[in-house]
Amino acid sequence: MAISKIGGTGSDNWELISSVTPTAASTAVNFTGLSPYKKLMVMWQGIVLAAATDVTVRLNNDFSQNHTNYRNTNSGSVGSSSFTTQWPFGDGGTVNQNGYAIVNNCDNAGVKILEDGYAVSSNTYGYYRGFYRGSAIINQVSFVTTSTFTAVGTVALYGVK
Amino acid sequence: MKPQVMDVDVNTGESTVREMTDAEFQVYLKDKADAEARANSQK
Fold first, then answer.
1. CA distance readout (Å), A34 to A22, A64, A111, B11, B32
2. B35 to chain A nearest CA, in Å?
C-alpha cells in the first residue's frame, strides 16, 4: 500500500498510513502490522454511530488496565479516568463523532504519551491528555465503539518516523 | 452472535471483517459498561 506524505516542515513529517470507512455493523477498526513510528495520530471525521455513545482508542489491542487520561470539556467539567483498556473520546455521547488523538513515544519501551486529543460530538467538545503504560512498541491502533459504525465517515492513521 | 470488528493490514491495505474473539467480547462488555457510566456521569 502506498504511503503518501502530507507535507510538513521541521521535525514532524506526518505520513498517511491508512484511511478507511468503518464497515457497517462493526464495532472496531484495528490498524495492524505497524512498523515502529515515533508518533501516531488517529483522526476520525464524520463518523456516525448507530446509537449515542462515545468512541475510544486502544493501543496494541491491550486488554489490561494500561490507558489513562484526563479531559476538559466545553461544559467546564474536568474529569479523569482510572487505568482502563482504552482512551475515551466524545463525552457528549452522541451518534456524530469527530476528533483526533496524537500519541508520542510509540517506537520504544517507554511510556506512550497521549500528548494531544480533541473530540467534537454534536454541540459538545473536549480536550484530552494522558498516557499508556504498556512497554511494547506500538504495532496496532484500534478505533472502537460500544455501539456500531454505520459506514459513514472516515478513520485515518498517520505517523511520524 | 458476537459483534464484528474490522482488521486493516496497513502493509497490504487489505481489510477483513470478522466476529470478535471470546477475549475481545469480554473486554467489549466491560467497555460498554464503562461507556454507560461515562454517559451517566455527563447527565
1. 19, 20, 18, 8, 27
2. 7
